[in-house]
Structures are given as structure tokens and as C-alpha cells.
Amino acid sequence: MGALARQSPESRETFSEDRRVATAALILVTAVWGLTFVQVKDAVELYPLFAFLAVRYAIAGVALAPPALGRLRGLGRDGLGAGGGLGVLVALGIGLQTAGLERTTVTNTGFITGLYVLFTPLLALALFRTRISRELWLAVGLAIVGLAMLSGIPESSASGDLLVLASTLAQALQIVMVGRYANRYDVFALTFVQVATACALFGAVALAIGDLSVPRGTTVWAALLVTGLFAVAFALLVQVWAQRRVSATRIAIIFSLEAVFAGVAGYLFAGDRLGAIGLAGCAVIFAGILMAEPAAAAALRRVVGGPSREPAPRPPG
What we know:
mainly alpha
């Protein structure tokens, strides 16, 4: 418990409430990511991939600019470098993921992306010797079992799956690195630099291959606006803010819900079918999340009307 144990009851209550809010916000972000896979897959069939990503991140940058521009000076050279590095990882992760999504199923994309629940603690351990508790390792194991139960859609593609797997490594590293920088720099400024860097990289690739053009059609514009504003601008803001309160490993476990939401979206809108084993996998993932994140368990108990018996809050880690 350390320093937290010496805090007043009011301070511990505030910390606990922050964790609950952060958990709820992260689950909302994960739902947006999973549910928009089908929308993105449909859009990139009509509009070039890198042009789509460049415009998507440009929309996010415009949305973030008003609160962020006045705070950029406070980042300093180190903060700009940190944001730029995070932006490169964002571009690698999302670019490879979307390229894989073009070639494989929505459900498989969600399943393989969810493997950052394994890669994140391993990278944190390898790079920063971050201690991972037995509780969290057990939750990671449950999440991996659940993700495996969600796999096996026959219409998948080996090349698409490999691209998504590579993207997962980049996204796991981005989660770990955000954990290193979240407390050091302004949330809006750091997020804006990430988005601007990714936009510049996607735009450069689109220009180089001659794919950059004005988007057309309701399908494309709907996907650009929804994903630009919510899956990029809002999501990255929430991630940087939440990682001041929740560890990288816990965030990765919560993010494993992306596979569940992707499976739901694939079932409802893309003809994917989970089956009994897949549905059981969703339940196992939920179990892992509730084990790793007591705030999620407390929130669920309140939703179903039961008493909240959340244990004393712990510092992120």
C-alpha cells in the first residue's frame, strides 16, 4: 500500500472514484474501437487505406487543436519527442491493423488485437522491470484463454492475421510508453502531438503512392467522422488521462474487451458467427477484467443492484 496507506480516508476515496471513472471511460473507448471495425472495413473498400487514415487523424487533430495548441510550449523538447515517438507507434499500430482488417475478418482482427493483453506486461517487464502481481498474471491468462476461444473464424487470411499481429506489438509498446509519460506532460498537448505525428506519417505515405484524394460518399465520411472524433481524439485523450490512475497491464486487460465488441459487431453487421465457445470466451475475458480491476467489479455490482464491496484502493501498478 505504501504512501497510499498513509493518505486520509477522503484521499483514498477520491483515488478509488478516479479509478472507477477511468475504468468506465476505458471500457467505453474499447467499445468504440470494437464496434467500429465493421465501419472501417466497409470504408477502406471504397477509399484508399492510407488516405483514409490521414484524413481520419486530421479530423482528430482539428478536434484537439483548440485546447491543445496553447499548451504545446509547456511540453518542451522532451515532451515533443515523447509525443512524436508515441505518434510513430500509433501510426504503426493502426496502419498495420487496418491493412490486416482489409484482408481478414472483423472477429479475427479483434481477437489478434486483444493479444496485447499478453504483450503489454511482457514489454513492461522487459523494458522497465515493472512488477506484475500474481493476480494480474492470472487475469492475463484468463484473457488469453478467452481470446483463443473467440478465434477460429474460417474466412480469415494468414497474411491479414500476421499484419494485425504486428500491429498488436506496436500497440502494446504504445500502451507501455504512455504509462511512462502520462504523469509528466499535459494530456491535451501530448495527445495532440501523437495525433499530428500519425497524421503526417499517413499523409506522407498516401502522397507517395498517389492515393490522397477528397473522400466521397456517406459510408466513407461516416467512418471518418466517427473514428476520427471518438476512436482517435477521444480515445487517446482517455488513455493518457487514465494511465495516470490505472497501470499499463490493467489497461491492456480492459482493452481485451475490444475482441468481445468486435465479435458482437462482426455478428450483427458482417455475418461472423461466434458460437457457444466464442460466447464462453467473452465470459472468460469479462472474468479476467473483473479479477484485474476491482473498480470494474464494483461498477458491475452497482449496475445489477448489489452492494459494493470494493477492497481498499491500491496505487496503479
